Amino acid sequence: MSEESWEVLSSETALHTPPFLTVTMQQVRLPTGGTIDGWSIVDARDYTNAFVINEAGEALVLEGYKHGIGRSSWQMVGGYMEPGEDPLSCIRRELLEETGYSSDNWQMLGSFVVDANRRVGMGNFFLVRDAKLV
After folding, report:
1. 84-131 pLDDT, tens per residue?
2. Which of 26, 48, 102, 124 is most buried (most C-beta within 10 Å)?
C-alpha cells in the first residue's frame, strides 16, 4: 500500500469553539502535483459509546434530544472525554451519570477515527455486560 502524503501549503483556523470544535482550512498539494484549496480539517473531542446489557440480559437504550439532528432519537450511552481522561474511565462515568448503572464487565471493541479525511475525532466503543442499577 502506497502512502503518499499531501503537502500542506497553508493553514488557517476558520472556527475555534473550545473545548468542542476547531475547523482549519488548508491549501494542499497532492502527490500528483495538483492543489486543493479549502480542504477542511475538523478537530472534535474524542468520545466513548457503549452497548449496555443489564443483569436481566436487556439492552439499555436511551432516548433524548440531540440538537445536531434537531429531534429526539434513540442512543447508546456515551459522551465526550474530558482532557486527560482515558476511554474506560469516561464510559464508566457516562454510564453512571446517564443511567445510574454500573458494571465490572467491560469489553473494549475498538477505537476508530470517525472521518479520516477530515480527522474529526476518535470514537472509543465498548460492550458492557451485567450492568446493575446502583
Report:
1. 999 999 999 999 999 999 999 999 999 999 898 998 999 999 999 999
2. 48
Phi, psi of 96 (to 5 degrees): -65, -45
Which phi and psi (to 5°) does residue 83 adopt? -55, 130
Asked if the peptide bond before residue 87 counts as cis, ω within 30 degrees of 0, the response is no
* Residue whose C-alpha is closest to residue 94's, from 32, 59, 52: 52
Signed CA dihedral, 5, 6, 10, 16: sign only: negative
pLDDT tens-place string over residues 8-60: 999 999 999 998 899 999 999 999 999 999 999 999 999 999 999 999 999 99
- CA separation, residue 85 to residues 49, 82, 97 (Å): 14, 5, 16
